[in-house]
Specification:
CATH class of the largest domain: Alpha Beta
Shape: elongated
Structural class: alpha+beta
Largest sheet: 5 strands, mixed
Helix content: 25-40%
Strand content: 15-25%
Number of helices: 10
Number of domains: 3
CATH architecture of the largest domain: Alpha-Beta Complex
Distance between the termini: 17 Å
CATH topology of the largest domain: Adenine-n6-DNA-methyltransferase TaqI, Chain A, domain 2
Number of strands: 27
Strand order of the largest sheet: 5-8-11-6-7
Oligomer: single chain
């Protein structure tokens, strides 16, 4: 707030420079922590929000349960109350109530006082400054926000008209983010449909490769596939773990390391660690090249799979991955698409049944089956699915842009740096 220093229309306060019309209030002067409870045994069932029902950082709920299924007392809330998860507040779990109900005792129910708009209060609870104060917790293993600390937080409070305008602007960004998320969900569903159709041959493209009737299919152990497709073993179309660091390597070389925890559903962490070989983890052994595919052999049901682009060429991966490298009979991006498919998922599940440790070995990877169209058809399938991936990624980038814009708007609107 110090950037407003000496600006016309601003005044200096204990929290910095704010507009002259604004006031400085403690949090307890603008919000009340409600304390009404409900005993599930003594009432009809209502919707109940637990901590796991509130999504981190987004201000959305993922679901709810019914209070008549619970035993412990719950906090009551009504429409326009703000719910804030006091347990592990760094998780940023907050929600603007859209219906009446009850919630976990680990959730604060906040109500705006008459000097504060409820939506404006909700956006204040979103801010880094509020979260930082809420993180001044009591307890170590189960850190909880301290109302005695949070209630004294000094807040710059604009007049009601400006509060409502600020909340309206930020709500517009929330609506845009929600619309983009719905578009992402719709395109992800379309991707699933395309995979189900194209990777099983239910939908075919016209081309020289399709010499048989589209309805001519054969039954295989992984399901029905077109007669002109082969059912191959993985070892027949890829090299598995073909390149590894051995004892002859220079111990002074430095490399970027891809661990199991760095890969999730086709995405890779931004902050990969670099190691000198002599100090590297013992699992850092698999050399990856452009167009390789990583398949996690530890908990493969979680789909820790990754396509290796040019930017990852020469990196070293954990031995917890199998590195699949095309031998020329399979299009790498077709292979990558197939390992996310339902038929492949069922094969993995079958290998894990009865296992105390959810992992598969190299021999089992080599024995996995994969339907094999001609290379031109593989390339066409991979092209369509890659185009769909690019569309989804573009929407995700748009969502991130909106999120960052909203964060920037909150910073300037809620501090009075920009007036509305």
């Amino acid at each position: 707030m110090t950037t407003n220093k000496n600006k016309s229309g601003y005044k200096h306060t204990k929290i910095g420079w704010i507009p002259k019309e604004w006031e400085v209030k403690s949090f307890k002067e603008i919000a009340e922590k409600k304390g009404k409870t409900l005993n599930p045994k003594d009432s009809t069932s209502v919707k109940c929000i637990e901590l796991e029902h509130i999504e981190q950082e987004t201000g959305r709920i993922l679901g709810f349960t019914e209070s008549n299924k619970l035993l412990s007392q719950k906090n009551k809330f009504i429409v326009s109350n703000i719910l804030f998860g006091k347990l592990r507040p760094y998780l940023r779990k907050f929600w603007y109530a859209e219906f009446d109900g009850v919630c976990s005792s680990e959730i604060w129910v906040l109500s705006n006082r008459t000097n504060t708009d409820s939506k404006f209060l909700f956006y204040l609870v979103n801010t880094d400054r509020f979260i930082e104060t809420a993180n001044l917790t009591s307890g170590t293993k189960m850190p909880r926000s301290d109302w005695g600390v949070v209630s004294t937080l000094s807040i710059p409070l604009p007049p009601m008209r400006e509060q409502k305008k600020i909340a309206e602007i930020l709500s517009t960004w929330d609506e845009a983010i929600e619309t983009t998320e719905k578009l992402i969900a719709a395109q992800e569903q379309r991707k699933k449909w395309l995979m189900q159709q194209l990777l099983t041959g239910k939908t075919r493209f016209s081309g020289d490769w399709s010499s048989t009737n589209k309805n001519d299919c054969k039954k295989t152990k992984i399901g029905s596939i077109p007669n002109d497709w082969e059912l191959s073993k993985m070892k027949e179309v890829v090299l598995v773990d073909s390149e590894s660091i051995n004892q002859d390597y220079n111990k002074e070389i430095t490399f970027n390391y891809i661990s199991l925890s760095d890969v999730q559903l086709g995405n890779i962490a931004d902050n990969l660690k670099s190691y000198n070989l002599k100090n590297a983890p013992s699992r850092a052994r698999r050399i990856v090249r452009k167009n390789d595919v990583l398949l996690s052999t530890v908990r493969p049901n979680l789909k820790g799979f990754l396509f290796i682009g040019a930017n990852l060429d020469g990196f070293i991966a954990s031995t917890g991955f199998s590195v699949l490298r095309s031998n020329g009979r399979i299009e790498p991006k077709y292979l990558y698409a197939y390992i996310f498919s339902y038929p492949f998922e069922k094969q993995i599940e079958a290998l894990l049944v009865g296992s105390n440790y959810p992992a598969i070995n190299s021999s089992e990877v080599k024995s996995l089956s994969i339907p094999l169209p001609s290379l031109p058809e593989q390339e066409r399938i991979a092209e369509v699915l890659s185009t769909q991936d690019e569309l989804i990624e573009g929407l995700r980038d748009e969502k991130q842009r909106l999120v960052e814009q909203k964060r920037g708007l909150m910073q300037v609107l809620l501090t009075g740096k920009v007036r509305v």
